[in-house]
Write the structure tokens for this entry.
Amino acid sequence: MRRRVLPGLPLSLGITLFYVGLIVALPIGALVFKAASLGPQDYWRIVSSGRALASYRVTIACAAAATAFNLVFGLALAWVLSRYSFPGKRFVDAIVDLPFALPTAVAGIALTTLFAANGWFGSVLAQAGILVAYTPLGIVVAMTFTSLPFVVRTVQPVLEDLDPALEEAAQSLGGSDLSIFARVILPLLAPALLAGVSLSFARSLGEFGAIIFIAGNQPFETEITALLAFIRLEEYDYQAAAAIASVLLVTAFAILAATNLLQARALRYMQRA
Amino acid sequence: MAHAPHGRPPRVGDGAAVRRALIAFVLAVGAILVLAPLVVIFAQAFRLGIPAFVANIAHPDTRHAILLTVLTALVAVPVNTVFGVAAAWAITRFDFPGKRALTVAIEIPFSISPIVAGVAYLFVYGLQGLFGPALQAAEIKILFALPGIVLASMFVTAPFVARELIPLMQAQGRDLEEAATSLGASGWRTFFSVTLPNIRWALLYGVVLCNARVMGEFGAVSVVSGNIRGQTNTLPLHVELLYHDYNTAGAFAAASILTLLALVTIVAKVLLERQGAGRVRRPALAAPLPAALSTAAALSPAEGAKP
Amino acid sequence: MKITLDNVVKTFDTFRAVHGVSLAIGSGELVALLGPSGSGKTTILRMVAGLEYADGGTIRFGDRDATRIPVRERGVGFVFQHYALFPHMTVAGNIAFGMKVSKLRRSRAAIDARVAELLSLVKLGGLGGRFPGQISGGQRQRVALARALAVDPKVLLLDEPFGALDANVRRELRRSLRDIHDALGITTLFVTHDQEEALDLADRVVILDHGRIVQEGTPQQVCRAPSSAFVTRFLGDANRLVAEVRGGRALIAGGSIEAAGVPDGRAEIYARPADIEWAREGAGIAARVIRVMDRPESRRLVARLPGGEHVELDMTPETAVGVGDSGVVTLRRANVFALA
């Protein structure tokens, strides 16, 4: 351990611990305490009820679809922004952050208006027999929007910092574009892609504001887990709300842990022998 | 290919077909998913003409919602900023046991659903919660009032300032502060005249993003505010209320204010990035990613075409 | 494979990096491109590789015009300055890469056998399973060399191959590169800013300055007959004295030295520290010792001449001399260039 030269440890650490304790740890602890006070049987009954299970299915399936789309789109966008120049590139680079900056409720009503059967896109899609608003597809659209920037913003800096000599070396060894992309570039982007995908998926699982407007919120069909927790609160069924919220909480932690593990694996070549 | 006649040999993916296809794909998706929502918000807000728009904005409930939102940000953002700076100072300037756990704990709110945050606060300050009964006895109102809204906003934005500062201050190292202290500067003097000038843009960057999130937060606030029209409705909640009242023009008028805020945030972000903020990339999910990647970069330092 | 550059030009934005360079490298030759930074040497190497396209002139490989052939079809092995090893592949994976992506299909066993052969060629047997991050700088350099050799290149190109290594490793790798070159007989071109490295290793040295070739020849030729003051200074420590040339001899106090071909008028004389003698008395330029620096192989004196110039000279370690001593210096050998 390094000798302490600089002042301010007690004050800065004190503020930090107090804040993290009061703002982050206390509420999470209270939630866990509340959920735990249910007892295993009641807890299990609530979190494995048909309606809850259906909500997990809808949430996970839609989040997976949105994340898969964002993986492809994010990688393409990061590639385009860091490799090509075209008119309007800087505008595209800036506007990509809109989903982070725009309040989710605003996004929700805007997307609903666009994709409702009488909306700009919804009317066109309706003619093709595709309904978006008030169907699971609408949930996917909302999740895709709110988690759009994650993959781009994690991959773009790595792609920009990629040593051009690596690509040149692969070219000098006779690699085709496709083989260099698959064998050199993609593996080096993998940890960043993983981080982006994980953030995107976690965000989609927890998203609420943008979804409730476009989803239709029909139990068993278009009801996401976060909404179910909210509904239980409005019904004054606090224990059920606590239980369902705890499922979301545990899932978030599990994703966090899994991502860390996978990243360590993807970067195992960095470890010293 | 837009190559100069004697330009560089093609890099991977420089083929015209690939290039055009990728740019077209990205622009099409961007137009549908990002640009169209932006346009539709203003189109709807002004659908009934400018006078109707002005009337919607000037409605007392809307004005109150704006006021409440600004008030929330005025409390939550500065407190969060102080916390972010303190946390970054503690984590990057000292070694202590549990440092990594603390870093992860600060990032937690980022990966938790805002609904979970709201529910969690209910179980601290609500009547069914830990302190609820005691608070009621003392007639202190936290939930369904401004304090609850502020607390929930602080939860969801807790990592915003810290995660801009920690990687930057980590990268800058302790040398400058140690030099200043060794020259006899006090701690505060060192912070204000050595540390702060080096982190000001990143700090501002974090503050801007934090502010945008506080003003736009919906899920967590929607649980703790109680949605009392004209009293505990922040602007995003007010948008929902108007929308569900089938007052589409009113909802979009209120939404257009928040959209303007988002656009201002994006412009500020671009300007601050030009000053170098956001360049030292934050740890995603507090994973070992950036450190590991910078080691990878050190293995094969970027090397351009040297003349 | 013979490489011929004919009047090659390269400009970056507005900066002209290479001005009409013509150069022929014989098949099997080992040639050094030597020059200070900004002299255009790396750009020339990259143009030969096809990592950069020339703006003018031609580059021929044998009889074939290779000027616009992309790098992947040029059949060169390139060793990058910082090696550019793929960090996510093992040492063996790096070496096998070129064989795996080649249009020429090889069996797994054939690839493994070739990798093992190359590993032993560069003396890295047993390290095939390590990642680049887990081996030393010198080992990485050898992996980069083995990887470049794996595709059986007709030409081997190395950009500052030893630049990032410390002195001892550098000397060892220099020798092993020479051995590998001699064993394989592959045409090799390398870039360096270190004159000792170029002179030690190369059959022929091409000295560059500001994007032009200023001299080329064997190490002996460039050392004994440097063509300009720049080359003389760049190849090693040299004392500079200004003198008058008359009738092919440069006049200095106490005598004159050969200056064949230098026109009458003011000229500069360059003499290496080992080419200057010190004596207590006798004919020569009066000098006073102002510093003595002891080195493992010599004593270096810094002496002050009457005109105020300082000269440095290397004496045997036994020379008995101290600061403040007076004596004379004489030039045993020197190069004289007319002053413009």
Remarks:
- The two ends of chain A are 24 Å apart (CA to CA).
- The domain at 61-223 of chain A is CATH 1.10.3720.10 (MetI-like fold).
